Amino acid sequence: MEKAAQSVINWDGMGLSILEVSHRSPEFEDVVLKTQLLVRGLLSVPDHYSVLFLQGGASTQFAMVPMNFLTAGKKASYLDTGYFAQKAIKEARLFGEVEIVASSKDKNYAYIPDQFNIDPQSAYIHYTSNNTIEGTEIFDFSAAGVPVICDMSSDIFSRKINVNDFDLIYAGAQKNMGPAGMTLVIAKNEFLEQAKKEIPSMMDYRVFRDNMSMYNTPPVFSIYVAMLNLLWLKDQGGVSGIEKRNIEKAKLLYAEIDRNSLFYGTADAAHRSRMNVTFLAVNKDVEARFLKFAADRGIVGIRGYRTVGGFRASLYNALPLSSVEVLVNAMAAFEKIYS
Ligand code: PMP
After folding, report:
1. How far, CA to CA in Å, does 260 sit from each of 253, 254, 280, 283?
2. Which of 151, 154, 188, 237 sits in a 20 to 30 Å window from 260, CA-based?
3. pTM higher than 0.90
4. How far apart are CA 262 and CA 171, in angstroms?
5. What's noted on cofactor binding (predicted)?
6. Residue ranges of the binding site for L-glutamate
7. Given ligand 1 and candidates 79, 87, 153, 184, which is best to mutate, with the most ligand atoms within 8 Å of its CB?
8. CA-based torsion, 38, 39, 41, 43: positive or negative
9. Ligand 1 centroid to 11 CA: how many Å?
10. Neighbouring C-beta atoms of residue 94, cutoff 10 Å
């Protein structure tokens, strides 16, 4: 962030701000190239995949995916695992038939359904790898028999993935990659060729692929800061280095939730997210008191989303283990006082 701040005033001693430099300048083209290479290196993206930087957030991808791939006479399959999966489903329905292969709505999305069939005629199956609000995560992407599309907005770069398991991955940048404003897409070139032909340019993945993500003015500052952040990630031992720390952070917090008599986790143990830890207090009084107790100790941003309630602690890459320790210690101290 210090480097980003400095570059807003004077980027690499050029006497120009990163905010005013032309996106067609060789210096910025170099940033785009470097960022793409960092994405490729960190996630071991094979050569026959394209790395694209788009705009409109992951929410635009909810529509762009079916606009490109839900072709006439086909249907698309979706796994309904929560709030953002539902949003993706809603948009897909505007473009054609949608089949929901399974849903965990029956238990307020506290688990990931693992028994379902996908119609082999489906245009694709859509997954949400990490359910940001409900605190569940998919760890097994077994062969689907149809193209696999995955919304990885809230767990990309947090753990190793096998890009070959997917035909298209998308992610809003703002969790583990950089500032909001850019959306990462990693897509198999062969799959992109299956897209419908008549698509507005700004919604056509191939237009971005053929123009180095610069068909129009790209989100210059977001891409630049993402590059700095991915350099930081590389310094942390890359994705496998950060994954070890993310496992450690999640283990520590879940262990306290399971031990502490005043709290309990909402997600099924096998599907607990390492990025978003959701938990409830035994009653509303404890919940309100702990929120205050935590705030008094500088712990903020842990209130759960209204559909789940309770608490949600997000443990994205940038959060150090020491912050999790502060929360865990506060939970233990609160238990001593309260019970
Ligand atoms: N999908 C998931 C899993 C998310 O967590 C979010 C945002 N929190 C979105 C989609 C929507 O992303 P955006 O705000 O970039 O449109």
Report:
1. 10, 10, 11, 14
2. 154
3. yes
4. 35
5. Binds 1 pyridoxal phosphate per subunit.
6. 24
7. 153
8. positive
9. 30
10. 12
Per residue in 104-133, pLDDT tens?
A: 999 999 999 989 999 999 999 999 999 999
What tokens were used for 130?
A: 């990490």
What are the distances in angstroms from CA 212 to CA 167, 294, 304? 19, 46, 39
Q: Give the pair of three-digit tokens for residue 172.
A: 């809003």
pLDDT in tens, 315-325: 999 999 999 99
Structural domains in the chain plus CATH codes: 2-235 (3.40.640.10), 238-338 (3.90.1150.10)
260 and 331 in contact (C-beta within 8 Å)?
yes
The dihedral built from the CA positions of residue 310, 266, 249 and 40, taken in this order, carries a sign that is negative
Task: Return the structure tokens found at 92.
Answer: 């897909």
Residues annotated within a binding site for pyridoxal 5'-phosphate: 58-59, 84, 132, 151, 174, 216-217
Longest dimension (CA), the chain: 65
| pLDDT score of 197 | 84
